[in-house]
Amino acid sequence: MSAPSRTASALSRAPARLEPDRVTLYVWELPVRVAHWVLVLSIFVLSASGYYLGRPFIVVPGEARYHFVTGTVKAIHFYAAIAFVLALLSRLIWMFTGNRFARLPQFIPLSRERRRGFVETLKFYTFLRVEEPGSVGHNPVAGLTYLAVYGLCLLSVATGLTLYGASAAPDSPLRVFAGLAGVLGGLQPTRWIHHVVMWLLLGFMVHHLASALLCSSLEKSGLMGSIFSGYKFVTREQAERESGEQR
């Protein structure tokens, strides 16, 4: 089923009565929700395990036992990285195959409406506008921010592969990624970039949660619950507009 027909189908089955002017609308598809939560959980595991690998603080008797602990943490970091990469790739693919709320135009304000919405949303975030403009999917400012975050995620993957390739066995196919160290200025700058990106992603997650709580409270759209169910509460006018844009 194509993206427009999926969205039209969601609109046709969505209008469950909530308030006189509200209906439910299926916005976040299952792959988007799964990728979101896998990214969240893997970032936490990667941050904790990566921080330990950079500064080991568990002391156990005997050199062999120390390496066993460190090796276990490294294995956890490796498998969490696999989950992170798969979730990231699936989300990037869904930018081209998902419904209209998941697609690339939600992240890059190319249309006149999205550019105007970007300005109005920016005014709201900078306290120059009292009312939140409201968006069914990502608002234009958030969408562009998420695109930058995905860029950080890709940078984290690139630097992580570089560091892993540098310590991989000589016959490992991942050894080829060690060559990226020359582009990034060496292994030490690569490790520093990898570390900084970790803190930037953690900082974004704190801001993301705070802004989601704020917008959910102001919009009364069920934003927080929508990342679990996929459904948001929208006005009939918004639902009709979304339906019209699919025709």
Q: What features would you describe in this structure?
A:
The protein contains 9 helices and 2 strands; from the N terminus they run αβαααααααβα. The chain folds into 3 domains: 1-27 and 230-247, no CATH class; 31-102, Transmembrane di-heme cytochromes, Chain C (Fumarate Reductase Cytochrome B subunit, Up-down Bundle), CATH 1.20.950; 111-217, no CATH class. It has helices at residues 3-13, 30-54, 63-97, 112-125, 140-167, 180-184, 187-219, 223-229, 236-244; strands at 22-26, 231-235. The longest helix has 35 residues, at 63-97. With 247 residues, it is mainly α. The protein is elongated and about 70 Å long. Strands 1-2 form a two-stranded antiparallel ribbon.
Enumerate how many helices there are, as a single number.
9
| Total domain modules | 3
Poorly predicted regions are 2-18
Distance from first to last alpha carbon = 15 Å
Can you count the beta strands?
A: 2
Helix amount:
55-70%
Protein structure class? mainly alpha
Query: Could you state the order of secondary-structure elements as H and E?
Result: HEHHHHHHHEH
Name the strands of the widest sheet in spatial order: 1-2
Largest sheet: 2 strands, antiparallel
Mean pLDDT over the full residue set: 86
What quaternary form is this? Answer: single chain
Content of β-strand: under 5%
Apparent shape: elongated
Rg measurement, Å: 22 Å
What is the element layout, followed by pairings?
Blueprint: H1 3-13, E1 22-26, H2 30-54, H3 63-97, H4 112-125, H5 140-167, H6 180-184, H7 187-219, H8 223-229, E2 231-235, H9 236-244
Antiparallel strand pairs: 1-2
